[in-house]
């Protein structure tokens, strides 16, 4: 029989990629999006594909979530809805917890209340930020957590409540501990897209400088299209489990900047350290990149790099897109977006 999936946060980056993957596999896909979202492209997608259906609901509305799940009785739920911007989580910690932590609880409780424990498999999008200030490098499924921002703290609650429901009610619940993953549809309030789009704008003369925070911060960056494949694979296993999803490689923000500018034929030379660090056009000497203390976070995570060996061995998952290809992909999209 045709499988039915419910995706929260379907209009976000991961929701967009997982919905396409599931539709290509013949699923009937239902997506939850916020009441304020009235994007024309979503209506067009729904009209063109009879297997795609959208529902307006907020993750704070338990009764509406309950009715949606009761109506469609999904075989799989992918909980991707989140307030996922780290800086915003410092500015709006209560809202972040309401969506990320309690939103997950509401979905799990709806499954239990409706008697779908044996039918509905549940994927919880967790994050590599759980490890925060970990002394163990690289991080795996057994590495102790030490979250360093309200976003990660809210995700830590979601991680453990998912495990609690799995163990207490024998539900098929999986946590995907997803390290940073990007794509051409990543919005500009994330540093990766801010960098690639700024490189293109500077090249085309629409922007003079790029201002960033900690250039030495290092992350494990992968491609969102690869990561949603891992999400799906988790729910196809015989038993539920938790997996680190990462590339196993780490790059600094400075390296990301260098790759992005190189893709628009600008080589950078660096001078100074810390707040005084600057990136100059190697040919013209013009300063194109500067550090702005406003973009520093109250607490910085240490070196975050995931060990995906468990996912590789048990799921057969291997990421296909490397760091350089990811940056090229994003810059190429920005070149189309930023017209002359």
From TrEMBL:
<dbReference type="InterPro" id="IPR036291">
    <property type="entry name" value="NAD(P)-bd_dom_sf"/>
</dbReference>
<keyword id="KW-0521">NADP</keyword>
<comment type="similarity">
    <text>Belongs to the NAD(P)-dependent epimerase/dehydratase family. GDP-mannose 4,6-dehydratase subfamily.</text>
</comment>
<keyword id="KW-0456">Lyase</keyword>
<dbReference type="GO" id="GO:0008446">
    <property type="term" value="F:GDP-mannose 4,6-dehydratase activity"/>
</dbReference>
<comment type="function">
    <text>Catalyzes the conversion of GDP-D-mannose to GDP-4-dehydro-6-deoxy-D-mannose.</text>
</comment>
<feature type="domain" description="NAD(P)-binding">
    <location>
        <begin position="6"/>
        <end position="330"/>
    </location>
</feature>
<dbReference type="InterPro" id="IPR006368">
    <property type="entry name" value="GDP_Man_deHydtase"/>
</dbReference>
<dbReference type="Pfam" id="PF16363">
    <property type="entry name" value="GDP_Man_Dehyd"/>
</dbReference>
<dbReference type="GO" id="GO:0042351">
    <property type="term" value="P:'de novo' GDP-L-fucose biosynthetic process"/>
</dbReference>
<dbReference type="InterPro" id="IPR016040">
    <property type="entry name" value="NAD(P)-bd_dom"/>
</dbReference>
<dbReference type="GO" id="GO:0070401">
    <property type="term" value="F:NADP+ binding"/>
</dbReference>
<protein>
    <recommendedName>
        <fullName>GDP-mannose 4,6-dehydratase</fullName>
        <ecNumber>4.2.1.47</ecNumber>
    </recommendedName>
</protein>
């Amino acid at each position: 029989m045709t499988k039915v999936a419910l995706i929260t946060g379907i209009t976000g980056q991961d929701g967009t990629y997982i919905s396409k993957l599931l539709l290509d596999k013949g699923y009937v896909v239902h997506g939850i999006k916020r009441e304020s979202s009235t994007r024309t492209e979503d209506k067009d997608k729904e009209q063109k594909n009879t297997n795609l259906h959208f529902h307006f609901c907020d993750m704070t509305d338990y009764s509406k979530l309950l009715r949606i799940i009761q109506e469609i009785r999904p075989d799989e739920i992918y909980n991707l809805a989140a307030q996922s911007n780290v800086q915003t989580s410092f500015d709006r910690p209560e809202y972040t917890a309401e969506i990320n932590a309690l939103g997950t609880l509401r979905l799990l409780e709806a499954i239990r209340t409706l008697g779908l424990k044996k039918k509905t498999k549940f994927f919880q999008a967790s994050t590599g930020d759980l490890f925060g200030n970990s002394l163990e490098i690289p991080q795996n499924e057994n590495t102790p957590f030490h979250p360093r921002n309200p976003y990660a703290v809210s995700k830590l609650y979601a991680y453990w409540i998912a495990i609690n429901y799995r163990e207490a009610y024998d539900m098929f619940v999986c946590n995907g501990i997803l390290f940073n993953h990007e794509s051409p549809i990543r919005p500009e309030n994330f540093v990766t897209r801010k960098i690639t789009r700024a490189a293109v704008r500077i090249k085309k003369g629409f922007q003079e400088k790029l201002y960033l925070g900690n250039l030495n911060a290092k992350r494990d960056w992968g491609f969102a299209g690869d990561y949603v494949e891992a999400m799906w694979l988790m729910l196809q296993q015989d038993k539920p489990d938790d997996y680190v999803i990462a590339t196993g490689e780490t790059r600094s923000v400075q390296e990301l900047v260098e790759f992005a500018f190189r893709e628009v034929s600008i080589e950078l030379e660096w001078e100074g350290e810390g707040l005084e660090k600057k990136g100059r056009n190697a040919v013209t000497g013009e300063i194109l990149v500067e550090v702005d203390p406003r973009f520093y976070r109250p607490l910085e995570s240490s070196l975050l790099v995931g060990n995906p060996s468990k996912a590789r061995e048990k799921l057969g998952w291997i990421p296909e897109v490397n760091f350089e290809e990811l940056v090229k992909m994003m810059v190429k999209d920005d070149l189309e977006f930023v017209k002359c």
